[in-house]
AsmA-like C-terminal region-containing protein
Amino acid sequence: MILLSIIALYVLILIVLSILANNKKGLILSKVNNAVHQLLPGDAHINDIEINMWRYFPKIEIRLIDVSYKDTLRHEPLFVAKTVSTTFNIVQLIQRNLDVRDLKVANGSFHLFTDSSGYSNNYLLKPKQREIERPGKKSQKVFIDNVELQNFHVVIDHAQKEKKYDILIKDMDARIKKVDTVLNIRLKEKCLVNGLGFNLAQGIYLQNQEVEGTFNIKFNLPQKSLQFSNAKASINKQLYTMGGNFNFSDSGKFSLKVDTRKLVYKQALSILTEKIQRKLSLYQLSEPINVTAEIEGPLMYKSIPFVRVEWTTEDNILQTPIATFDKCSFKGSYFNERVKGVPRTDPNSMVVFDNFVGNWEGIQVAGSNIMITDLANPTLDVKLQSTTDFPALDNKFNLQTIRFIEGIAVMTLQYNGPLTANVALLQKLSGAIHVKDGIIQYEPKTLTFTNCNGDIIFNENDISINNFKCDLNKSHFEVQVQGKNAGAYMQSDPAKAMIVCNVTAPFIDLGDFKSVFSRNKTASSARKKKGPKLAKTLLNADEILENGTLSLNMKAGHIVFDQFDATAFNSNILFRKDDWLINNISLNTAGGSLTAKGSVQQPGAARHDAKIAVAVKNVNVQKLFYEFNEFGQNGITSRNLRGNFTADADIALGISSSGSVVANSITGAVDFSLKNGALVNYKPLENIKNFILRNRDLSNVKFAELKNRLDIDHDKIHINRMEIQSNVLSMFVEGIYGLNGNSNILIQLPLSNLGKKDDKRPQNVGVHSKVGPSIFVRAVSGDDGKMKFKLTFSKKIKARSAGNDNESAGDEKKQ
């Protein structure tokens, strides 16, 4: 009964107070506004006041309606709120000692600004100085231990320092507990971050991001510092762990650390500025990453905070504008202060990838300390290592002239230069390839090299091959290659683009190279469709090998080709697509030496046309004819000739796709000298016995020096008048030797041959010397292709046509 009476009395008092408050509301509102004006330096105004006895019964609520606080110059609000409310109990009201413990602000805003002229409304935060309190009078202190904000917009901007922080607090509840000079605040919030602009020229962080979380904050009042750690918050539903330290003193600084797991890459980019997003959006990661970020710097100074972001990922797929890597793992970091003391802007920012491993279309690559610097004009510094098999390497280089068929390649690729979102960047790579036990095929001529070992080094314009060893069938080679400025020349002046190849070999079988006389094999359509993928210089080398110039310097201790056998081989040959320029060939063969120069062109698929100047010195003529396959004729062969041969020849000839001399293709002239010569078992000479010297042995005839000029015209050899002095007879020969049966040779046999020959070595008397009476014999081709000899009284040289000896009937006597 007593309890009911107390409750009834309490309710009665509240009713009375409610009536009194409503009757005196205007007076109360006036006094509150006056008190606020005396306390605050700006223009503060409360439009209405509401005292409610029942909303938070048994507490009494005082609610201020349409509250504003403006500066006196611009009349722009620092603070506005639709409602500001608090509660207290009836005892405090009776004692006139209002102890405000809670505060709730709804539908309002807070705007602290400094404009471009330097004018700021921050003076509104400092209350007016109060009169000196009288002795014995106690000051009333207000401590609020619970603050709630609903739909409250906070903007802090400084135009001169290009800073702006814009946050819409949808709901916030702060529970405050004071321990000595430290406020322990448990803060739960849900807000929309419109943006954090530490330097507006560089962009805004956290633009339009939903943030929700719980923070345990410590605010040190004397030090004006705020700290929190291990706070859990979500940004767009992604959970983050945060820690921070904010110092609000005059030299205010802050630091913020954020950590999250399994963050989607696209969502991570949304936190950063638009400029950074545009740059990093060129790269995509298909799987989430783990991220840690640190931000620290001054709060109010015109500077950009230090930003460092680190991330890790495993078994991911990285897509870039120039390549895609799968099964990749790496650590990465971004920071905006590469050089301390330099402004923290894009030019001083960098991205680093470390411990990178990934699969690049079949090639497993790894790299450390991959850097992208100067994000205003990005520069990439990358070095990748890989050990891969030849088929994967062949697919990556996709060269048209060279195929990597089998083997292992230890590859290093590097690049230091502008970063572009263009696949052409791959063509600017430089690097080295160490080849182990490789099989490489030169596609145009189908030459397959085995046991390949050595180093290929290349950059954008140069290529070199060092200590490269390989085999082609029985031939073994050591190769050095230099291609200086090859890439640049292929773009500006292809005629100057050249690769110099130096080859040494203990033994070469030239038969292994017969395919060089075949028509260039065209690349398969499958390889053509792929197009160039990697390394401009290698691509240019590809172009040079097919369309440019290859300078081949070759040295060999021993070379063979069918019957040909030589030593001390040296050559310099320029290959230009289907044309060759033979600057020099020298070798020792058949006991003497041979040098040559000339050119080779390929007019058709099955033929090469060669123009060659050859100098032969003191070679064994028998071996020479044998080694050169009788020079494509069978009139006089190595079975018949003996002696030391010296000659200068300028000839043109055709070479078949098999490397043989095309029949009847030789034209030109040969000036020769045969010393210590002999003609053995030469049937046409032995047939002279039908006319003269029947009792002499002509099977082994030794000669004085034979000298003459032979003019070769396809299937005809024009023999200029030639003196032949031998141990058995003297003769003078001239005419045409036909390779196809059109021979017409005039032989002058002086009658002095009837005398006895001495045993001394015969001596020449001169091709135009008077030798006295002579018998003339004509050698012509018969219908059976064999040489026929007949006496003649005509000294004319006429070619014989089929079925007609072209001589008057009375001039000759058949034998």
User: Anything to note?
Assistant: Residues 683-815 form one domain.
